[in-house]
Design a protein that fits this description.
It contains six helices and two strands. The protein is mainly α.
Length: 173
Amino acid sequence: MKKIFTGIYIILTSVLCLRLSAQTPQNFKIIELEQYIHQYKDWYDLPGVAVGLVRHGKIIYTKGFGVKCLKSNGTVTEKTIFSTASVTKLFVATAVMQLYEENKIHINKPVTKYLSFFKLADALYKNITITHLLNHTSGLPDEEGDEFFSSWKNPEYDDNALKRYVGGGIQRH
């Protein structure tokens, strides 16, 4: 199910970008956009989606459609947080490579050079590089335990959230 939702998210984003790329804020037709979103939502039987459009670094449109969960019927808003799961890999890898191109990081250096709080029970964690993480050769296991799913249900955004998550929030062995 996650893969289907991820695929739909990518398709919707791509289609919206293609359909709206030639439009300017002056001729941006919100009614047509919203009709298309409702139609798309119905085609794929999606309970809800949130849409945001940015043009030249400025947010020009945000809105939620539908419900967060069929069981609870909570309304989706432009601030609803969705778990994007593997979709984020593309964005993280792009950001990492941009930092690499700017000589701000070295991808063949250990992760601990940049995240000193990253620790595992096996001392070999000290040898894991950014390249290992990017190409899935680090040896890290998939995280699917209760603590992992709890972090999805109760996300944290403060300045120390990453440190807690990577450095001690989840016990990895």
